Amino acid sequence: MTSADLVLLNGNIITMNPKIPSAQAIAVKGNRISCVGNNQEVSQYINEKTQVVYLDGKTVIPGFIDTHTHVVDYGRMLTWLDLQEVSSIREAQIQLSERIKCAMDGNEWVLGRALDPDGLLEKRLPTCQELDTVAPDNPVVIYCQLGQVCVVNSKALKAARIGQQNNVGIEKDTTGNPTGVLRNQATDLVWGVIPESTQQELHNATELALEKIVQAGITSVHWIVLSEEELSIIQNLVETDGLPLRVYLIVPTNLLDLALQNLKPLENDYFKLGGAIIFIDGYLASRTAALFEPYSDAPTEQGKLFCRQNEGVVLANKIQDAGLQLIIHAVGDKAIQEALNIIQHVKRNSVAPCPRIEQAAILNHQLLCSIKELGVSVSIQPCVVASEFSVWSAEDHLGKKRARWLFPVKELLSKGVLVSAGSDCPMEPLNPLRGIEAAVKREGIQKVSVFEALQMYTVFAAQAVSEFADKGSIEPNKFADLVVLSKDPVSVEAEAGVSVSVCFTVFGGTVYCSKN
């Protein structure tokens, strides 16, 4: 019997393997699991060189798989001033003042994040004048915790050339001057003038993001890139063995050739050029998601299609010919129908995973049946679903009838459609436990059980990209990618207020981020 390098004992192991759904202990040799069983069985693999971790009843599940994240953007955001815990405008001013002291000069932009106006004593956002008080020289932009909302100071307003024009989303005071609060598309006005980060700054930010992702119990990400600069960062990380987790890379079609040339030859256990994405429409919040019927709160608007069937089929065949997964971003029902038309006409490649629709927000019975018949998987982001109702007022946008079909996860699962889950970080929180909570607490018939939500972040996520032989469940010969939780999320499902947290992560047999 070969001894183990790592043994986890006396735990509550949720294997996600229906043949052996639970266990007490795990033995690991190298980067793979060698044994799953009870304490006595696994203890036989221990010798004087084995690292033994006593779990004291803590819960172990397969490492989370986040099927939709933007790593570089998340890293960039982590370098911003974190205002998540401030409780008043004065406290925010104090923290901003301290950050200003670290600025190199008056031209340096200062960015903040996660400000929650409902959590402030004043129950409102600060004004540009209140920001000017502590930051008169540097342009300042502070983004809110929820929604596409930011507040800026006078220097930033001037840089973005925002004055008394009547752009939608620019909040004004009684004299017609901007207050500094920008909403929805108006936030693009200031985002467009923020200076680009240097390549080294982006690289450092990306390394920070990867570290935080592993700390959250995530051992695999589907990393969606949108720029050539990101490809360069990823290439450097792969070539220098700098990835602390497994990456399934998804590229837009305009970067496909470059990715195939530079990244495909670098594939290994840590990295895979997995898929390419076609964008068919936009988003509900901006009313650019393509609908068959107009938006309920905007009778002249139905969104728009960015890509028609003929063009989509050409792009899809190119993706399939390269042996990559065909991924189509489609939110509205009209866009989803267009995506299914493309999938129906594409030449399938048996090497590539089944085609996947990203978002698939507004469905109906016919579309749901077509998704099942065509063998298409669906990737959702549970925190996005929650935001559609709590922040973006989905029922106002769509009306109650269509809102009932918004992200019908339970019905997709009941039809046997493969549904995987991600975060859309940094637009939504990275934490998969938050995502599971959002999926479970959803109102109405579409909420799922904790176990079903866990499946979407583990088993189903691995199956959706044909990686179930290596990950997604705790079984011998699979990667030793695990997350240890403070409590069993399945057993506490019905207990209000019970919080589950990540204790530590095991990636490839190595223990990371221990909090003990």
Tell me what you see in this structure.
The strands form four sheets. An eight-stranded parallel beta sheet has the order 8-15-16-17-18-19-20-21. A six-stranded mixed beta sheet has the order 3-2-7-22-23-24, with no helix packed on it. The protein has a six-stranded mixed beta sheet with strand order 9-10-11-12-14-13. By secondary structure, it is an alpha/beta fold. It is built from 18 helices and 24 strands.
Helices, strands, pairings?
Layout: E1 6-9, E2 12-14, E3 22-23, E4 25-29, E5 32-37, H1 39-43, E6 51-54, E7 59-62, E8 64-69, H2 71-78, E9 81-82, H3 89-101, E10 110-115, H4 128-134, E11 140-144, E12 149-152, H5 154-159, E13 170-172, E14 178-183, H6 187-191, H7 199-215, E15 218-224, H8 228-239, E16 246-252, H9 256-262, E17 271-279, H10 309-321, E18 325-330, H11 333-345, E19 356-359, H12 365-373, E20 377-380, H13 382-390, H14 394-403, H15 409-414, E21 419-421, H16 432-441, H17 450-457, H18 459-464, E22 482-485, E23 502-507, E24 510-512
Strand order of the largest sheet: 8-15-16-17-18-19-20-21
User: How would you describe the oligomerization state of the chains in this entry?
Assistant: single chain
Helix and strand content put the structural class at alpha/beta
The assigned CATH architecture of the largest domain is: Alpha-Beta Barrel
Briefly say what this structure is.
This protein is 32% helix and 22% strand. The protein is of the alpha/beta class and 516 residues long.
